[in-house]
Amino acid sequence: MLQLEDWMDLKDLRNQGLSISEIARRSGHDRKTVRKYLKDNQPPQPKERQKKPSKLDPYKPYLLSRMSQGVFNCVKLLREIQGQGYPGQVSILKDFIHPYRQQQRELAVIRFETRPGQQAQVDWGHFGQVLVEGHWKKLYAFVMTLGYSRMKYLEFTLSCDLEHFLQAHLNAFGYFGGVTEQTLVDNLKTAVLGRQGSYIHWHPRYLDLAAHCGFVPHACWPYRPQTKGKVENAMGYVKGNFWPGIAFVDLADLNVQALLWCDTVANAKVHATTREIPWKRLPGEGLQPLPEADYDTSYLAHRQVQRDCLVHYRGSRYSVPHRYARQKVMVREPLGGGQLRIYRRGELIAQHRLSPQSGALVMEPQHYEGLGPKRRLSPILPQATGVPLPSGPGIGVARMAPVVEKRALDTYDQLAQGTS
Q: Which end of the chain is more exposed for a tag (fewer CB within 10 A), N or C?
């Protein structure tokens, strides 16, 4: 079939007054072909080439659906469609994904490598909100990356406060099987209370954890996130590889999937920088052994026991043995929730089930044993207050009133008349 350029040449020769035979001789085309195109006076229409079927065609609707969810990682998409029977290679997939992907620009920085066992980098990431028991709560991710092996630990929490920050450290070191010499953190308030130049005012509880585990904390320079680029890249890896399209029932289910992803993907694939698998590189870290003693990451607060042997905590009141009245105590609430422990000079003196509602009075009768009748306090039934409380031992709502002797009304008449 003639091309458009050839047709234009034929028209030009015809306009010069040449015969069909001369045009055919000069153009090299058959006379019938020349006569046909000059007679129709229509440019040749290119025929549409029929595309050969691709191995990827049956999976394109699924890929478009996943990209609408923000999944553009070709390695992850290849793994998913291979599970559906895709027989091709990743090159076809990359050609299909490329037009849909937005190119990201990266700033050039000097890479800083650490020796084995020297450093672990930690960071928080925000992952939107989740619905928990009818309430929307913020979801956070804690990531720790070992500098030498590039081993990663991922954990999701509903809070990025100090207590969760400390517990996530312990969980990460437990996952790695040891402790690094240093930790590198951003200028988080849970770690750094303030700084003046190179002087850093660390949070005392973070320093306490560091002394317990045996690591030395270090902080990045402000506005220099590339200082801890390994964990920054790890957070981006989580958001690009693990998080898109993930579905979970609750926080526990999400963390099970996060650990599985660490085991089978993040730490089981060849790292682009080290060219080694992090699991195989981990033994070379030479981590310090974990401390044998447990570390308590509970919420803690100092309280004054009232005269009625009660301690105020989170809007409710909890009893302690009467001998600790008007003394200072420490209150601890484990991260798991549900329990409240009260200490006096390191000794556990009371333990209660934490009330889920404010305004409750949680009492243990034995805390008042030994008090005389005149000093003993009598609780009014919870129904009298109109405040509902869950059932369970030691829980009740009361107004405290002294026990008084009941007398007949005639007694008061006699007293008024001055008779005995």
A: C
* Pairwise CA distance, residues 221 & 202, whole Å: 14
Q: What is the number of other CB atoms lying within 10 angstroms of the CB of residue 149? A: 24
Please check whether residues 248 and 177 belong to one and the same domain: yes
- The mean pLDDT of 90-95, rounded to a whole number, is 89
Q: Which domain holds residue 125?
A: 119-285
Q: Is residue 313 within 8 Å of 331, Cβ to Cβ?
A: yes
Same-domain pairing of 207 and 126: yes
Place of tokens 């595309």: 51
Select from 272, 235, 209 the least CA-distant residue to 145: 235
Question: What pLDDT does residue 120 have?
Answer: 94
Does any domain span residue 46?
no
Residue 140 · residue 127 · CB < 8 Å: yes
Residues 278 and 303 in one domain: no
Please, which residues have CB within 8 angstroms of residue 367's CB and are 6 or more apart in sequence?
309, 319, 320, 321, 322, 350
Place of tokens 């002294």: 402
Amino acid at 349: I
Task: Please tell me the distance from the alpha carbon of residue 237 to that of residue 153, in angstroms, as a whole number.
Answer: 12
Same domain for 151 and 280, yes or no, is yes
CA 362 to chain centre: 34
Instruction: Tell me how crowded residue 162 is: count the other CB atoms within 10 A of its CB.
Output: 18
CB 180 within 8 A of CB 118: yes
Of 79, 76, 77, the closest CA to residue 63 belongs to 77
The pair of three-digit structure tokens given for residue 132, joined into one six-digit string: 């928990």
* CB-based contact 10:27 (threshold 8 Å): yes
How far is Cα of residue 33 from the mean position of the Cα atoms in its chain?
A: 71
Q: Within a domain: residue 215?
A: yes
Q: Give domain status of residue 24, yes or no.
A: yes
Residue type, 272: A
Return the number of other C-beta atoms located less than 10 Å from residue 24's C-beta. Answer: 19
Q: Does 235 lie in the same domain as 124?
A: yes
Torsion sign (Cα): 89, 91, 92, 93: positive
List phi, psi (to 5°) of 261.
-65, -40
Average pLDDT, the chain: 82
